[in-house]
Structure formats: structure tokens, C-alpha cells
Amino acid sequence: MNSNTMFMSPEESARIQATVCDRLKQRKDQQDRPREQKDAKALVEQAVSESLMQDISSAAFGFGVSRKTKETMPAYGIGAPYLPCIKTLGDLEPMKLKDLRMEIHHKGLFLSLRRISPVAILEASSWAVVQDTSSDHVERIELFLHKSQHGCDILDTASEFIVKEPYYTINNHGESTIQVNHPSDILITEISDSPESWRQEKRGKSSFEPLSAEAYKEKGNHALLERNDCPLSHFYYTRGLKLLSDSKSDETLRNDLYRNRSFVNLRLQRFDEAKSDALSSITYDQKGGLESLNAKAYNRAGLAAYGQGEFLQARGYFEQQRELQPEDQHVALHLRRIDARLREATEGVYNMSRIVSSLMKAGGRPDVASFDGSTEIKSSPGAGRGLFTTRDISPNEIIMCEKAFCVAWSHESETFSALVCDTREDTAIKVFPAGLHKAVVQKLLNNPSQVERILGLQGDYKGIGQKLIELDEVPVIDTFQIHDIVQCNAFGLGQQTEDEDISNASTGLWVRASYINHSCIPNAKKDLIGDLILFRATRRIASGEEITHAYDGSTSYEARQAAFRRTWNFECRCPLCLVQMDESDTLRLMRNEAEERANMFVENNDPTCAKCDLVPWVTAAPLPDPSRPIHAHTEKIFAPDQVHLYVIRKDYYIGGRRIRAAIAIPDKLALINHRLGTWQCILKRQDANAKEHTTAGFDVPPPYTSPISPTQANKPSLFKALKSSFRSKPDPLVSALCHAAMRGDEQQVSGLISQGANVHGRNDDGNTPLKCAILNDQAGTSRLLLSMGATTNKVPPLFKAAAMGSLNVCKMLLDSGENVNELSKAGEPYFVEVVNKGNMAGIRFLLNNGARAEASTLAGGSILAQAVKKDQIDIVQALLEHGADVNSHDVHGNSVLNIAIQNGNAKLVSLLLERGAQTQPATILCTTILEYTINKKRLDILRQLVAAGVDLGLTDAQNQPVLIKVIRNPFLKKDDKLEVMRMLMDNGADYDAIDITFGLPAICHAVETASPEIVEELLIRGAETKVRMLGGQTMLTYSIDVNHRNHVKSLLSYGVDVNEVDGLNRTPLMLAMLRLDFNMAKLFMDYGADAMADVNESAVKFIKALKRRDFLEILGLNGEPRLHQVRGLPQVRDSPTTSPSTIEEHAPDVPPPSYEVAAGKA
């Protein structure tokens, strides 16, 4: 069953629609009613209860609830959009909670609120209790859908905030609330310092101790370096900047704050402000020796521009950095990366193999540029705007490539789909990519420069228009307008993982691709590589013609039209739809039956043995000109009553040929039902005399869709057979001349030429007489033919003979004065072509006779690098023996040693090292020699390099420790990973290495991703154990959260503190008790856990409420002393009956209850 299909019963559909309609009626009935006073204590207790249940559930099941499935998708109604506030805070008047009125958007007013409860975070919303800053009135506030920013819940982040033009309404659960749908309508005025800050007493402005800009800088630095809290540090840096004036005295501090905030903005992907801050921090007075700080600013501005796809601008900033830091290698790497992006953007040349190999590392977002190609956006009659070509496009040519503006992948936690009931369309229920909607809004808030690109796309609700509005330093985003834009323009990416279904489907938004309109007979088709979308022409497209692709691939006219109306709100009027609209029921039935037969044939039959009315179709058959109309082919070749339509269902690859199964449908008008790329029209003529079928196809498959196996080269080529069938028969004299040349009969060659034989003619194999002579190493006939004016195409005869290994001919030509270092017209030595052919005898002959072994290709790479890349070890050895530079590079700057390591050729590596190849750790790919070998899983090469004393490079080009990369490498087996780690640490790698991105030591990465043996190896070498994981957990509490029990035992065995409290105020014993894990709790008690610690009080109460006698005994809380000995720490107790080593334990009387039963008892 299709995982992207959801089946809903009519009763369930009706229930959702009825709920939405009832809620609308309820809101309408209560419109303009005054707000009712609420019980503050009861409301806060409700919030505490919901938040606490989430915490207990997280603790019991290991942080995080199970993802939503298509059986439990959230549902909500939409259909009453309203504009966000488009006034500054200074233009609004304050109001009180008591003045709120139901179903009113309080225009021109704002609320100042303080949060007085924890936040209850739901799938599509979050809510909390708030209070007036100047009264005791309380109310519920709810952020719907757009509730998080930078991975943190907005309400949970803020302690005080302002709501502009508040909307008081009834939520989806029937509760009155202040609902915020537009993120720009809420302004945070005070950050929450801790999860318990809501419990603090009401504070007035006078209670705050005023801080200086320097103090805010220190607080921001602490939040960034100690807590890794980028949003909090951004808040403090911004506060500090607001306190500074434009005076000269504040310039240094102001520049520091701008520079630091630029770094934070880069990590938060706020590229607009990152670039602005970096440029604002530049000091043009160089007297103070501030070149390094200015270089850092230009670097951050360049990274921000690169992140926005502004590559020319980025290059300018990096060139400024290079002027200040000419020795910095990273600048050169950035500039090379930018040059690659500019080539992609201007020429459309992509390294597809590199892109595909980088998908996993890049999280499905490869580092590439968009290529607009020869296209332009302009008005499309009857379809708004469309994308048109500005020149002729050939079949299979790439029209355009585009990086996604935003993609939500199924494996990402924020991705989910929702059932949306749209009351604007008679309560129609749609599955909507809510996760993508949130991501698009978040990216626009972070980068206002992109807003107008998105607002220019098609959407039913026009909202605030297409111009950017910024108020109170925040871009105004109408989320209802973005909803409609995503609904109309987003693409599905297809199933990416096994557990992906409609509830978390991967979706994306591409801006330029969104302008491509639909046609059931398209001229383009799309492909996806990660978040890069490619459109390829399926036929010739004339200049000025509109580009189209199929939005829906259904063969049913009714199904297609229903999909168009439901999702895109249009009716297709293409020629195919016009014909199918007038078709009879009988004809549609015939088509459906034919399609079913085709499906059965594909499933049950071998495509090589088609029978009856099933005809195989081969791509190598002669194809008509695709630029001419379909009818032009049919009327010229066949009579109308002999035309049939073949429905094509599947491709097969047999012997390198693509074969499609087809079934005939007797329909004279069916030629219009021709859909390139999905269907294939085949014209069939019944020849009464020959009784044969003649077929002709109209589409040309892409070049990459016909893979050729390595063994296919030795098989007969269908292309060559067809080519030879079109070649005219050779002249008998030329055939005789070729035979004489092969035999070396100079007298017969001379006689045939005197009789008029053409020295440039070709025999049955397509070879000239001179080529025949060279192939057979006939020096005499070769000399004679050359003297008669015979020539070789492109390559001079000497190099042609050397490439074929004809040494006698080579000697003859060399004696006649040929130059072994002759250059082509383009300036490339012909010797390069001989090396490419790989004939060892010919290469050695030329080298022994003076050919330059250090020659370079036209592109600039050495021929040695070329031979190394092809693993031609004999040729490499010969080139090195004749003076080739062992440290030469290829056209991309890779050294020959790096190339050999990339290819995993141990023999070549050994040869190059023996010849003195230099080993620079940093490579052109911004990696190290060590990373090459590890990623290739070639530990034999790594041992070879270590034995040779090679500097492995213990950090990469970005100073990231390679040890951590090895620990996190998912492709290395456990034993290999251990061996590499030991090799690194034996050669100086720090076992306490810290990654530069998150500040986590190696032991934390091992606990998170590796096996217990890896963790133990680091512990044995003395790794620091008093460290914190990224979420604030200790290694013990993290291991419990993710159920790594083996790690728990290893950590305890090497002295990790069992009583350490993590950043979430938890101990290992507390988690064991909350999870009702008796064995784990006993293990912690054996290692000295303190059950009476204050932090464990709530968990102990939980155990007591359950009356778990087995737990109470091991905790020593049953009224009797529990005698035990902490492992490794001998204890002496004053007891007349028990020795110091006695352990008194009790097995539980009954098995521990399940969590559900325990929670019910509690």
C-alpha cells in the first residue's frame, strides 16, 4: 500500500468537518462578549499538570514522544485569515487583560504580559498562563503552529513579552485564549534565565539592576561559550548594542558586539544580519593593528553572503580578507569553492557524483548553486505567469537547476503533516505540510531580504501584498499568506526513508521552479538530487516556448481534474484533456482495460518474449524529428486507419538497451494522448506481405538512463551495426589497397594507387589504408602511403602508431624527423593522448626518445596525475623514471599522492612514497590524508603512511579533531574504528579533544554514537569524565535517556560520579526510579548513589506512592538499615551480626508493574 495514501472513513471526515463548523459557529455567537475573569490558581495548576505529564513521560520513555503517524495526525481549521499588525509599537496604545472582548482583533492596542506558568508544548501549538504586568488578571496565551524559533519554544524562552493587536478567541479545544498566529505580533522584552523563572514574584521595572553594555557583552559571551545558547547570547548582544551611542569612545566595544553577534547570527542562519553586523564591525583606522579583527569580519561577511547564494559578493569579501591575511589557506579554499558555485550558476556544469556522495554528510542539502539557464519569467495566457525559454533547447538538455529555498525532510523532528479543514472551500479536508510551512516562515523571519521572492509566488490569499514590511526591527510575515503559497507551490520529494509516510512526508519549496505551469503533455520533466531540482527537456523546445511539466501523473481524466481543482484550483484545458473530455465511456473502458493488461504483462512476463499484440520497443530504433508535430509523422508514413496507440508502462534494460512493453488501442484520435517522458506513442503498420511490425518512438531517453556494463564493450554494438548499415559500400580498389597495406606489399600498394585507388577511402570496417598499415605495424607501406598524401585524423602518425603499439612504424617516423614533443593547435602535447590510450610499449618508446615526462594537459594537470587517476602503475613508474615530478597536481590541485589514496591503490601509494612524494595534511577538498584513508576504509594504506612517518594531520582544515570524526564515522566497523583511534592516540591525538562546533569532548561523542569498547578505550587512556552532553545531561543520564545500558556499566566502572546532577536537575538514580527500573536503581545504589539527596525527593515520593517495597528496600527507606558495600569503597558498619562485607538485599515480592499501571496508581 502506498505510504503516502491516507484512508479516512466518511464518519471520521464528517466528524472533523462538524467540529470545525461548530467551533466557527461558537466563535460567531460569542463575538464581542466581554472577557470573563479566570481563577489564576486553577489555570496555573492546569498548565503545571500538562507540563509535568510531558516531563514524566519524557523521563520514563527516554526524552521525546513517538512521532506522529497517519493514524494520529493533528487537525485544525483554516479559513478566517487576518492581517498581522502593521504598526510600530510606538503607534499602539496599551490595554489591560480585563478589556479583552471575544472574537475581536484589538486594533491599535497592545498587551504587556508576564508568564506565570510553565509552557505546555503540543504538536501544533504551545500555551502558558500570563498576567498583566500592572494587575492580577490572568489569561491563557497560545502560539499556534509558529511557536518555536531556532529550535526553542518562544513562550518557554520569554519571561515577559508584548502582544501587538491581540486576538481573543476560542481555540480548537473550546477554551478562550489570546491566540497569536503571526510571529511578528509578539515581541520578547525579557528572556527566561531558567525553567523555573516563572515562579518568581512579580517584578517591576525598578527591581532590575541596570547593566552596562560591557556587562551584556560578558553575559552574551558566557551564554555562547559556557551554555552554547545562541538565541540567549544574541539577545544579550542586542541589548548591549542598544545601550551604546555613536561616539568614538564606544567604538571598540560596539565593534566587538557587532562582531560577536555576527558569529552568533551565522550559527542561527540569520545571514542578513550576520553580514550587516560583520561589515558594521570593520574599523577603517588600521593604526591600532586591527587587521586580524577586520579579516575576521570580512570572513564572516563572506560566509553570510555565501549562505544567501550571493557568490560574487562573497568572493569580494574573501578577497578583502586575503589582502589582510595573505597566508591564510582557508581563504583560498573559500575562493575555490565560490568559483565552483559561479561555474554552476553560469554554465550549469555540475559534478553529479560529488553531489550524490555528499548528500548524507550534507543532510540532503548539497553545497551547489542554482542555474537559471536560458529561461525568463513572463506572463502566460490563462495561467498567470510562467517560465519561458530564451533559446532553442535540445531534447534531454538540462533546462534549469535550482536549490530549494526550504526543505523539510521526513527524518527531521520539526517535519509533520496536518489535516487542514478549509472553510473557504466548503470545509474540504487536505493534508498540508505544516512542518514546511513553519520552516519557510522561520527562514523569512531570519532573512528579510528573501521575503519579496516568496511573496511574489501564487497564492489565493493576498495578505499584506508582495512588499517587505519591517517594524520594530522584525519583518512582518503574514502566516496565512505563506500557508496559501506553500499549498500552491510546494513539491513532494518522494519517500526518503522506510518509516516515512504521509504524516511526515518530505516536501520543499523552490522559487523559480514554482513558475513552471502544468501540462498533461509536458515538454520537461523533473529530477531531484537532495534539495537540488533539475528540469530536463523531453523534446525539442523552441525559443520563446513555455516550459511545462505534469503536476499529476494519473491516466484518468476525472482523477487529474479533481486533483487540479483540489490542490491548485484550476482546470486543465490541454489538448489531451480536451480530447478525453469528449470521449465515450466505451473508449475510456477500453483504455482502462488496456492499461490493466499492460500492468499484468509487466508483472508476469519476461520483456524479451512479448507475444500477441505486445510489441517490444527499443530506443536504438530510428527516431523521427521530435521538433515536428506528431501528425506530421503519421500522415507521411501511415494511413489514418492504420494508426494505433500503444500504452507504455515500464522500462527494461537488456544488454544495454531500454525496452518498453506496449499494448495497442484502436483509437484514431489517440495520437493526441501523447505524453513525453511517461507515455509513448508507437505507430504500427501491418505489412500484409512481410507480416512484420514497424514501430517508431517519439521521446529520446536521457543519456544517463541507459547504463552500459563494463563487459558490454566486448559485445556487438547495436549502434555500430546501425551505423554500418547506413555507410555506402566501399570502393573495391580501396578494399584491395587496405589489404595490401596490412600485408606490407609496397609494390601492390603503389600499383593500386596508380590505378586511381583513393588513399583516403575506407574499407568495410571503416579504416583507411594508412590506419590498416599502422595497425599491422607495416613501416614500409606506412611510409609509402604517407608519401602519397595519406593522413591520420587529428593525431599525427607518430603518436597514432605509438598509441597502437606499432613500434616499427614509430621508428620509421622518428627517423624521418617527427618530433616526439609536438604540440596540438590548442597547445597540448600529443604525448598526452598516447598516455590516455595506455599502450605501455608506445609510451616507453616515446619516453626513451625524448618525450617530456613532466608535460601537462591542456587544462593544466600533469600527465602523471592522469596516469595515477587511472591506476596505471606501469605508466606511472615509467614517467617517474624519466623525470616526472612526483609532487605534481591534477587540474583541481590534488597531488598525485592524494589521488592514489583516493583511489585506494596501496601499490601506487608505496611507489610514490619511495620516490619522495610530499605529504601535506591539508588537501584541496579541505580534508586530510587521514580522512581520505579512513573514508576509503583502507587501513592498510594508513599503516603504510604511519610506517613512512607521514604527518597524518590530527585536525582538519577547520581545526576539527580527526579523532572525533573517526568516533562519529558510521561506515567504520567497531574493530577498525578502535584500531584507527589507537593509531591516532599513539601518534599524539588528544583523547580529550574537543570539537569546535559544539564544544563537546571526544568521550561525549563516543557515548552518543559509539560502542562500549570505544568508550572504554577513552576511559582507559584517562579521558575526563566530569563533562556534559549537548543537552546538559551527564554521560550517565544521557545513556539512560537513550537506553545505552552497556555505557552505564562502563562509566560506573571507571569512576564516573553516580550522584552528579545534570543540567536538567536529574540524577541517574532519579531516572531509574521514574522508569521503575529495579536493576538499574540497584546498580546505582551499589555504586554509592544517595537516595536521600534533595534532587531525588520527587522520585522517592513517586516510589512511595506506588508502595514498591522492593525499591524501598534497596533505597534503605523501609524502616530497616540497608547494609551494602559500595564497589571499590570498603565501608565498615557497627553491627553485632553483620560483617563489613555483608550485603543484605531482597528480591521484589511481585514483578514491577508497567508504567501505565504505576502512573494510574500514582
From TrEMBL:
Record-annotated SET domain positions: 373-552
Keywords for this protein: ANK repeat, TPR repeat
InterPro entries, per database record: Ankyrin_rpt, Ankyrin_rpt-contain_sf, Gramillin-biosynth_MTr, SET_dom, SET_dom_sf, TPR-like_helical_dom_sf, TPR_rpt
ANK repeat start and end residues: 765-797, 793-825, 859-891, 892-924, 1031-1063
Record-linked SUPFAM superfamilies: Ankyrin repeat, SET domain, TPR-like
Stretches forming TPR repeats: 295-328
UniProt region (Disordered), positions on chain: 1129-1162
Pfam families recorded: Ank_2, SET
Protein name per Swiss-Prot or TrEMBL: SET domain-containing protein
Protein species of origin: Gibberella zeae (Wheat head blight fungus)
